[in-house]
């Protein structure tokens, strides 16, 4: 029975590795998305700590966004998942890669995004995404740059498969975004951003940020990401039981370019990946997963 449950639910877990903690999971393992209405997903708060303030001169890192400021940028996401149950054949359950052209506009409390022609490596998903052209996404943003809520408002004609794919893509992008320290810093400064990633397996994510260059509003920041489970078990959806976490290693790196006068990263990428092993305490069932997620920003 557990093998059947795993076959139905692990794909959803591998693709998203997270949810808001406030939504349910359908019997087919997928997460419901809003139909003909905006869906708001709160994002866990961050804690930012300076490790090294860097060289003089030092200054505040704050986005100086004038309401109405616009930016054209493209978000690309690629999530690779392989899993194996016991000695069964290794399965590649990777969702299709997506490329999302965006027009971002700064508002008083956040950023409003308008989607362009979203494309995918999978022809079926690419077709399903066609009606999403012109859909809206919003980020609520704190004064330190942390995203506090994700709002999705796909066009009513957007199929559920496309809605779910867009939700996962933006969710991944949100958790690879950057928050700035409260204190002034200089080139060479290092700070950590600690945040809980909610989900069936709650994770503590720590991103170490290094300011490698600054020219006025132009910043170059290197990232080093680690994720550690905050629980020793994974609670399966629909009260289907739980799996022990045997090992869990997720680590990533990246570099992004930021213009403090624009609402989104200008360019760069972050890749996080690793291996996970789970075991059913009531049987000999063992699940192994290898994951790699890349979030990329560019023109």
Structural account:
By secondary structure, the chain is mainly β. 12% of the residues lie in helices and 46% in strands. The chain has helices at residues 2-16, 123-129, 160-174, and strands spanning 39-42, 46-52, 70-85, 91-92, 98-106, 110-115, 119-120, 136-141, 147-153, 190-197, 203-215, 218-229, 233-235, 242-259, 267-279, 286-298. The chain has a 16-stranded antiparallel beta sheet that branches. Mean pLDDT is 87; it is low at 1-5 and 7-35.
Labels describing this entry:
12% helix; 299 residues; 16-stranded antiparallel β-sheet; mainly beta; disordered N terminus; 16 strands; 3 helices
How are the elements arranged and paired?
Layout: H1 2-16, E1 39-42, E2 46-52, E3 70-85, E4 91-92, E5 98-106, E6 110-115, E7 119-120, H2 123-129, E8 136-141, E9 147-153, H3 160-174, E10 190-197, E11 203-215, E12 218-229, E13 233-235, E14 242-259, E15 267-279, E16 286-298
Antiparallel strand pairs: 1-9, 2-10, 3-4, 3-5, 3-16, 5-6, 5-7, 6-8, 8-9, 10-11, 11-12, 12-14, 13-14, 14-15, 15-16
Give a brief outline of the structure.
The chain is built from 3 helices and 16 strands. It has helices at 2-16, 123-129, 160-174; strands spanning 39-42, 46-52, 70-85, 91-92, 98-106, 110-115, 119-120, 136-141, 147-153, 190-197, 203-215, 218-229, 233-235, 242-259, 267-279, 286-298. It has a 16-stranded antiparallel sheet that branches.
Structural class: mainly beta
| Oligomerization status of the protein chains | single chain
In total, the number of domains comes to 1
Residue share in helix:
10-25%
Mean pLDDT: 87
The topology string of helices and strands comes to HEEEEEEEHEEHEEEEEEE
Distance between the termini: 48 Å
Rg (C-alpha, Å): 19 Å
Uncertain ranges? 1-5, 7-35
Overall strand count: 16
What does the main sheet amount to?
Answer: 16 strands, antiparallel
